[in-house]
Design goal:
This protein starts with 7 loop residues before the first strand and ends with a helix. The chain has 288 residues and is an alpha/beta fold. Strand 2, helix 2 and strand 3 form a beta-alpha-beta unit. The protein folds into 2 domains: 203 residues, Alpha-Beta Barrel (TIM Barrel); 61 residues, DNA polymerase, domain 1 (Orthogonal Bundle), CATH 1.10.150. The chain is built from 10 helices and 8 strands. Helix content is 42%, strand content 15%. The relative contact order is 0.17.
Length: 288
């Protein structure tokens, strides 16, 4: 498939439907202003922002791929995020999986606030809920923002320390467990394709990727802001070796987490075409 000159995509973007700062439509407007031909809204464990983003994308003439980022835990309790592209928005079983993960997020956020209070940090759970815009997609970044408001830490990044809410920290609470294998199967059953997100940041080894491929993994997020040139080349080679799709995304969350990263990654549009072909093939296989 030939490269399409001047057409690029960002296939990992987050909105206020989960832990980003910008509304889904605003994410689309920003992408359009930066000249992207296609994007994917990949909010954590929810597809709730996709309809709004689709409406904005249609109005602006930018292509939007329905997607989300699923939070999984492997056998060693390591968080492994998977990007689900092309899943049916009305698939009941997939919606149930995402709902269970979001319910777990609520309990987890409440547990972290309780621990913070026990250690003398005056964080209000009601304020965390307000920051999150409700209880549906509450997450750790919302707790961190409440900590900033309460004067406990100077910025969101400073909340993620061993003393506070960093993974394994004294105020950290583990999430609901869904394994990568279970998530891959759920994505396939919903008509989508599953891609390993930011494998360099997660620390996925070649053996990990081989195991995920055995479970049905469809692709790797090769291009990512935190990947070095060597890592990018290595993951591209792994994709070729295993016959996997190549994706790339900035992981932009607006004004939270790592900041406004949109524009850092420009994935060649040919990879979007291959991704769409894979989704179409999966949907066709399910129909028959």
């Amino acid at each position: 498939m030939a490269h399409v000159p001047g057409r690029y995509a960002d296939l990992q973007l987050h909105s206020s439907a989960s832990d980003g700062s910008d509304a889904p439509a605003e994410v689309v407007r920003r992408a359009h202003a930066l000249g992207f031909a296609a994007i994917a809204l990949t909010d954590h464990d929810t597809l709730a922002g996709v309809p709004e983003a689709m409406e904005a994308a249609e109005a602006l003439g930018i292509e939007l791929l329905p997607a989300c980022e699923i939070s999984t835990l492997d056998a060693g309790e390591r968080q492994v995020d998977l990007l689900a592209f092309g899943v049916a928005l009305d698939d009941v079983a997939f919606a149930h999986l995402l709902h269970s993960l979001r319910d777990g997020r609520f309990a987890r956020a409440w547990g972290m606030v309780r621990k913070l209070n026990e250690y003398g940090y005056a964080v209000s759970f009601d304020r965390v809920v307000e920051i999150a815009g409700g209880t549906e997609n509450i997450g750790r970044p919302h707790v961190a923002r409440a900590m900033v408001e309460a004067g406990i830490v100077p910025d969101v990044k400073s909340a993620f320390t061993p003393e506070l809410i960093l993974d394994g920290g004294r105020c950290y609470v583990q999430r609901v467990k869904v394994s990568p294998q279970e998530a891959i199967a759920a994505v396939h059953a919903a008509g989508g394709v599953a891609v390993a997100a930011h494998p360099g940041r997660t620390g996925l080894s070649d053996d990990d990727i081989s195991q995920f491929v055995a479970w049905g993994l469809d692709g790797i997020e090769v291009q990512y802001p935190q990947h070095s040139e060597a890592q990018t080349a290595h993951f591209a080679a792994l994709a070729t070796r295993h016959g996997l799709l190549v994706t790339g995304g900035s992981d932009d969350h607006g004004d939270v987490n790592e900041g406004r990263l949109m524009g850092r990654i420009r994935l060649a549009y040919e990879h979007v075409e291959r991704l769409k072909d894979a989704v179409a093939q999966r949907a066709s296989a399910l129909r028959h």
